[in-house]
Amino acid sequence: MGKTxxxxxxQWGDEGKGKVxxxxxxxxxxxxxxxxxxxxxxxVVVKGVKYKFHLIPSGVLHKNTVNILGNGMVxxxxxxxxxxxxxxxxxxxxxxxxxxxxxxxxxxxxxQIEEDxxxxxxxxxxxxxxxxxxxxxxxxxxxxxxxFVKTDDPNAxxxxxxxxxxxxxxxxxxxxxxxxxxEGAQGALLDIDHGTYPYVTSSNPISGGACTGLGxxxxxxxxxxxxFKAYITRVGAGQFPTELGNEEQTEGEDRDNGLTREEIExxxxxxxxxxxxxxxxxxxxxxxxTKRPRRTGWFDGVAAKYSIMINGLDGIVITKLDxxxxxxxxxxxIAYEVDGKKIETFPLxxxxxxxxxxxxxxxxxxxxxxxxxxxxxxxxxxxxxxxKGLQEYLGVPYAVISVGPDREQTxxxxxxxxx
Length: 419
Ligand code: IMP
Fold this sequence. Notes:
- By secondary structure, this protein is α/β, with parallel strands linked by helices.
- Helix content is 29%, strand content 21%.
- Among the domains are: 4-228, Adenylosuccinate Synthetase, subunit A, domain 1 (Adenylosuccinate Synthetase, Chain A, domain 1); 243-296, no CATH class.
- The chain has helices at residues 17-25, 77-89, 110-119, 130-139, 145-148, 154-159, 166-175, 208-214, 247-251, 261-268, 272-282, 301-311, 350-354, 381-394, and strands at 4-9, 30-33, 42-46, 49-53, 66-69, 74-75, 99-102, 106-107, 163-164, 180-183, 223-229, 232-234, 295-297, 299-300, 315-319, 329-338, 341-343, 357-364, 398-402, 410-412.
- It has a 10-stranded mixed β-sheet with strand order 9-7-5-2-10-1-11-15-19-20, sandwiched between helices. Strands 14, 16, 17 and 18 form a 4-stranded mixed β-sheet that branches. The protein has a two-stranded antiparallel sheet with strand order 3-4.
- Helix 3 (110-119) packs across helix 4 and helix 10 (261-268) crosses helix 11 (272-282).
- The longest helix is centred in the C-terminal third of the chain and has 14 residues, at 381-394.
């Protein structure tokens, strides 16, 4: 019997999904992406060679895996063709046997990119035309792939052979007992309905988005995994209760300079901006798509519990645990204080969240480099305490814990909820 596993970002995107998706793809017959467009981006390293993906699932690097771009996506044809060329030039095959685009995915048009660059500034969008394309979809005058390929646009002719009714292919694979991986882009807190509106993307990265964005019923999904960094980041503007430092400090920072000893000491003496800088520099927190420095903060447990609830998570993937090494104290936000009152649930009102002050639980940090640790038992005691405390608070099992970008830097915690 095959399984259908859904993997999504539990925070504001950039949780390191790419690596985990790549790991799961080894056992997947099919990988299906259900939302967003080339606002997403991740890098996969295979045998020392870096591959950058914005649209196509990294399953194309695996022989015999079928890769689907779902109807919930918005696709820029020239970006897609560029990505396809990049992949084939490195010796991989892309054919209509291993790559399929939904006939009802929407096509991003040049004027939508221009509109996004103009109108999206306040939100800090990626400027790829994502929002305006979804607006056209909802307004019911968007351009779908099946219509696009009827035009004489040269890109349309090149994509024609890949465009099919994907709901049949995906449901067919599930019904035939294949392993199907469903991949969300961005993260739950950027969801148009459930995220930190209006500072969100225009699609549904949450688990429900997989059903609408692919055309499958919820009962066909066997396990839902949420990926969370051991801290949290966000790009662009918006509510961020556990942010360390502020946006202006972050933007003014020179990304090429490493950390100095004084800065690490400053962080360990309680300077919040420097704590955030340690996370940014050690975690290499700069956008794959936009190169922007990411805003950094402590793990927001309140937001994580919310994410667990709205996604119905069966398991949690923790990434970048190694980035915390060297910090004397590690904090987890377990409640907010708003107007003198303690709240333990995630408020959806923008102003309430903007005014929320985090209430932290503090853990002792560890000094050891944990990037080559292979099992939970080998971790320093302080790292174990942090992970155990976090899991107890969140109430959901760990599926995977990652301590570095390579495939080997991964601890499998619960096989039952993976393939
Ligand atoms: P848009 O998706 O380009 O419309 O941007 C809307 C918001 O989502 C902005 O704050 C972006 O920075 C953010 N965003 C979009 N895609 C990603 C992503 O893949 N990772 C992190 N943030 C993203």
